[in-house]
Write a structure and sequence with these properties.
VC0802-like, Rossmann fold
Length: 718
C-alpha cells in the first residue's frame, strides 16, 4: 500500500495517531515528529476529510540521497512525474531541510521544480507552470541528514483551513489547534454525555464551532471545497464522493441542542464573524453567541467544559491589565463553575498563576511561533490557591525545610556559595549565577545581585508535560523552603519567576506594577534592575564578558546598540570612551530605563542618543555609519508594534547584511544571540568576515550552560 505522512502541531502527535486509527488507518504510528501510515486511496481521503488535528496529509512518492543540490535534482528526476501531474497542469514545491548540507530552502525547491519541469518537457513536450496558490499538484520535499523524501501534499492547503470561516479578526486560534485543545480537555467524552460548553472569550468562535463539530461527529473536511489531491492525475472523484457520503451519514445534529454550546465576547465584530461561520456550516441556531464580559459569565448546566484562549500580550491586547483579566477569569470559575472542567490556553504561563487554581495537567503547545501552555483544571474547592504578590515566596514551612530533599538542595547551594561566591569576590563580580539546575530534580536558575543588601532572583524552569504536577509542586516547595536558609537571606529579598523559552515580543511584557528598582554595580558602573515587574531583571548576566569587550573596543568610536533593551551595553561603551552612542529599541519603557542607566553614570549629554523605532525599519532608513555596533536581537518577535516578524535563525543573514551596511570602513560588528540551537549561515554572508568568540564570552558562572548564547565578531572585507 502507498505510504503516507501526517504532520501536526507540536505536542499533538498522539491525538493525530488516535484519529487516524479511528478512521481505519490501523498501520499508523508515531515516527519522530510525524505520524506515518500505509493506506489505500480511500484511507488517504478519509484522513484528509476526517482529521481534526493534522496539518497536512502527504502521499509519499519515494526517497533519494541529496548531499548536494545536483544529487537532489537527480533524486527528483528518478520519480515518474507524468503519472502525477496532469497535462497542462500546474505545480508548486514546498521544501524544508534539517541537519543537511542543503540549507537554502528556496534554492532546494527550485532544483526540485527544475527536475519536474525538465522531465515532463522531455517526455511530453510541454512544461507545467508554477502556481503557488492553488496548483494541480503541490509537491512536498523534506531533506533530513542529506536524505530527501518526496511526497504529494493531499491537503493542498493546511487542514486547519476548514472552509467555514467567513472573515477573520485579530489573532484567531487555528482550527486544528482548537480541536486539539478540546480533545485534550476530554470534550469528546463530555459531549457524548450531553455536557454543556462555554468559551467566555470566544472571539470569532473557533473553539465553540470546533466543539460543535466534535459533538455532532461532523468531519471538519466536509466544509472544504478544495484539497490538494483534486488536481492530481490519480484522483478518483467517485471514490472521494463515497468517502464524503459516509462522513456525512455519521453527522448527529440531534446532539447540538440550541444553547448547549455557547460563546461570548466583548467584540461584536468578532461575534458577527462567528455567526457567519456557523451559517456557512449550516448550523444556524445550534451554537449560541452573545456579547458579554468574562466577569458576567455564568454556567448553563452542570459538569460542563469552560475553555478559552485569553490574550497574553501577543498580537492583541496590551500586557498591562492582563493580570487583572486572568484574576477575574479565575474568580468567575471558582465562584460560579464548581463541578465543571476548564482549560486555559496561554502564551504567558506566569499569568496562569493569577487564576488562583491548581492545574491538574499542563501541555506544551505552540500558537503559531508562540510558545504556549494549555492548563487543565478540575474546578473543585481543594484546587483553589491563595494568591501571593508577584515573585513572593510561599509561607514558611518548617517541615518542608527539614525534608531530606530540601536539606540536600540547601547543601548544594552552600557549596556553590563557597566556591562560586569566592570566585565572584576575587573578580569583583557583584551579580552572578549561583546555581543552574546543578541537580536535575531541582530545576532552577538562581542569580545573586548586589552586596548590601544582596538579593536572589530564582527562576524555575517549566517542567515537561510528562512530569506529574504533584511531583513538580513537591520539589518546588522543598527548594523554596531551603533557599532562604541556605543563602541566609530575608524572604523579602528573594524573588521567584517561572522560566521558559522566550516568545516573540515578551521583552515588552510587564507582569506586575510594583515599580521597585534596585541599584547594582558591574565593572564599576551603576545599573538599575527590577525583580518583580518584568520577565527579566534588566541585566543579562551571561553577557557580562561581552559588555566588557565592547567597553574595551569603544574608545573614540561611534557606537550603535540595536535592540538595546535597558542600555547596559551602551553604558559600558560610554564608559570605555565612545565618541558617541546611539541606542535603538521599540519599547519606550526600556528606553526610559536605558536613559536612567546612562544618567546614573553621568552620560546624559547629546552625544548619547536614544531612538524608539522598529530596528528593521531603522536599518532600512538610517544613513549614519558607526565604528562599533552591538546587535543582540530577540530569538523571535512578532510584537504588534513591529511591521513584521523577526526570527533570528531565519532572518539573521538579511539582518546582519543590513547592519553591516551601517559599518564605517574598518568598523566592527559584535553579534550575539541566545537562540540555543542557532546555526550561523556564514557561507551566505558575502563580503563579511566572521570570528566565533562564543567560548570566550561565556562567564565562569555560566560554564554549566555553554550554549546559553552565541557571539561573533564581524568585519567587512569589501
Amino acid at each position: 500500500m502507498p505510504a503516507g505522512i501526517a504532520t501536526a502541531p507540536h505536542g499533538t502527535l498522539d491525538l493525530v495517531l488516535a484519529e487516524l486509527k479511528g478512521l481505519g488507518l490501523d498501520s499508523a504510528r508515531e515516527n519522530g515528529a510525524v505520524v506515518t501510515f500505509e493506506a489505500d486511496l480511500a484511507g488517504f481521503y478519509r484522513a484528509c476529510v476526517g482529521s481534526r488535528v493534522a496539518s497536512r496529509v502527504l502521499w509519499v512518492l519515494g526517497q533519494g540521497d541529496a548531499p548536494d543540490p545536483d544529487a537532489l535534482y537527480r533524486a527528483a528526476l528518478a520519480i515518474d512525474w507524468s503519472i502525477h501531474v496532469p497535462e497542462g497542469g500546474t505545480i508548486a514545491v514546498d521544501f524544508s531541510t534539517a541537519h543537511s548540507a542543503i540549507t537554502h530552502t528556496h534554492y532546494g525547491a527550485l532544483r526540485v521544480k527544475d527536475a519536474i519541469v525538465d522531465q515532463l518537457r522531455e517526455r511530453a513536450g510541454g512544461r507545467p507552470s508554477v502556481d503557488t496558490s492553488r496548483p494541480s499538484v503541490r509537491v512536498a520535499v523534506r531533506v533530513v541528514n542529506d536524505r530527501a523524501t518526496f511526497a504529494i501534499d493531499f491537503a493542498g492547503d493546511s487542514l486547519y483551513r476548514r472552509g467555514y470561516r467567513a472573515e477573520g479578526v485579530a489573532a484567531p486560534l487555528k482550527e486544528n489547534l482548537a480541536a486539539a485543545l478540546l480533545l485534550r480537555a476530554g470534550w469528546e467524552r463530555l459531549a457524548a454525555d450531553g455536557a454543556p460548553f462555554l468559551d467566555p472569550m470566544c472571539g470569532s468562535g473557533t473553539l465553540p464551532i470546533e466543539a460543535a463539530l466534535i459533538a455532532a461527529d461532523m468531519a471538519p473536511g466536509l466544509s472544504r471545497d478544495w484539497f490538494g489531491f483534486m488536481g492530481w492525475k490519480g484522483h478518483n472523484a467517485t471514490l472521494y464522493a463515497e468517502v464524503r457520503d459516509a462522513a456525512t451519514a455519521r453527522i448527529r445534529l440531534d446532539r447540538l441542542a440550541p444553547g448547549r454550546i455557547r460563546g461570548s465576547d466583548l467584540d461584536r465584530r468578532a461575534l458577527q464573524a462567528a455567526r457567519h461561520s456557523v451559517s456557512n456550516l449550516g448550523l444556524d441556531g445550534r451554537i449560541q453567541f452573545a456579547a458579554g464580559d468574562v466577569a458576567d459569565a455564568t454556567p448553563h448546566g452542570d459538569g460542563g467544559l469552560l475553555l478559552c484562549n485569553p490574550p497574553y500580550g501577543e498580537r492583541i491586547g496590551d500586557a498591562d491589565g492582563l493580570d487583572a483579566l486572568y484574576s477575574t477569569l479565575g474568580s468567575v470559575m471558582r465562584e460560579r463553575f464548581l463541578g465543571w472542567q476548564a482549560g486555559v490556553f496561554t502564551g504567558n504561563p506566569s499569568l496562569g498563576q493569577s487564576l488562583g487554581l491548581r492545574a491538574r495537567r499542563s501541555h506544551h503547545l505552540y500558537n503559531g511561533a508562540i510558545d504556549c501552555v494549555f492548563l487543565r483544571f478540575a474546578i473543585e474547592p481543594d484546587q483553589f490557591m491563595v494568591r501571593r504578590k508577584p515573585g513572593e515566596l510561599p509561607a514558611p514551612n518548617a517541615a518542608r525545610a527539614e525534608s531530606p530533599g530540601a536539606q540536600m538542595f540547601a547543601n548544594r547551594l552552600r557549596k556553590n556559595l563557597a566556591t562560586v561566591g569566592r570566585w565572584a569576590r576575587d573578580e569583583g563580580v557583584e551579580c552572578f549565577r549561583l546555581y543552574d539546575a546543578d541537580m536535575p530534580e531541582y530545576s532552577f536558575a538562581i542569580d545573586l545581585y548586589g552586596s548590601a543588601p544582596r538579593r536572589a532572583y530564582v527562576q524555575e524552569y517549566a517542567a515537561p508535560a510528562t512530569v506529574a504536577e504533584e511531583k513538580v509542586r513537591g520539589r518546588r516547595a522543598e527548594a523554596l523552603a531551603a533557599i532562604p536558609l541556605a543563602l541566609d537571606l530575608p524572604r523579602e529579598h528573594i524573588h521567584v519567576r517561572v522560566r521558559r523559552r522566550s516568545r516573540g515580543g515578551e521583552q515588552y511584557t510587564k507582569v506586575a506594577e510594583l515599580g521597585e528598582f534596585h541599584e547594582v554595580t558591574e565593572d564599576g558602573l551603576r545599573l538599575l534592575v527590577n525583580f518583580t515587574d518584568y520577565l527579566d531583571t534588566g541585566l543579562f548576566l551571561d553577557h557580562r564578558l561581552t559588555r566588557a569587550r565592547l567597553r574595551a573596543l569603544a574608545r573614540g568610536k561611534r557606537f550603535l546598540n540595536l535592540f538595546c533593551y535597558t542600555g547596559t551595553a551602551t553604558v559600558h561603551a560610554a564608559a570605555g570612551g565612545a565618541a558617541s552612542t546611539t541606542s535603538v529599541d521599540l519599547s519606550r519603557t526600556y528606553l526610559d530605563w536605558a536613559r536612567r542607566n546612562l544618567e546614573l553614570n553621568g552620560f546624559a549629554d547629546a552625544e548619547h542618543r536614544l531612538i524608539q523605532a522598529d530596528v528593521l525599519e531603522y536599518l532600512r532608513e538610517a544613513q549614519s555609519v558607526f565604528d562599533l555596533i552591538f546587535l543582540d536581537p530577540p530569538t523571535f518577535s512578532n510584537s504588534k508594534r513591529m511591521t513584521g516578524t523577526l526570527d533570528v535563525q531565519r532572518d539573521h543573514v538579511d539582518l546582519l547584511q543590513a547592519t553591516a551596511r551601517r559599518l564605517a570602513p574598518g568598523g566592527t560588528l559584535v553579534f550575539s544571540t541566545n537562540h540555543t540551537r542557532f546555526r550561523l549561515a556564514a557561507g551566505m554572508l558575502d563580503g563579511l568576515e566572521v570570528e566565533d568568540i562564543s567560548a570566550a564570552t561565556i562567564p565562569r558562572d555560566f560554564a554549566r550552560n555553554p550554549r546559553i548564547h552565541r557571539c561573533y565578531v564581524i568585519t567587512r572585507t569589501q
